[in-house]
Predict the 3D structure of the following.
Amino acid sequence: MSRTPLPYNRKILELFRNPKNLGKMEDATVTAVAGNPSCGDMIIFYLKINDEEVIEKASFESYGCAANIATSSIVTEMIKGMNIKDAWKTSWKSVVEAVGGLPSVKFHCGILAVGALKRAIRIYYEKREVSPGWLPKELTFEEKQALEEEELAKILSNRMKDEGEK
């Protein structure tokens, strides 16, 4: 089966070939894993947050396509130096804009990157047993789309079993 390559722009291709902030962060304050069952992409976000709640460093590991790597890379660039409250306001649409646009079938990559960021911020506060007034009690759209590793593994495992029975 032949597939037509997706029309990625130069910025996405550059971030795919030379991602910023790629790799595990040994001294991370918080780590969050997020995945998407529709495509199998997975991201691990690492944040180093100082006592003033400013994101000093951000990095990621990605198991996914060019758009997944590019959007994760750009999120880490966008949030460095931001306080957590401002980083929380990062939207998937601003991420898509920052990479110069995505094919519509790849919008979920921007959603996944922002979901991983928001999951990391939520975990940061959960670890401290604090809930600032601005942090919603309910999961956001992006967080709901970015399943945890265990949930993703179950869904993909069940999908593989179903396909094996056919």
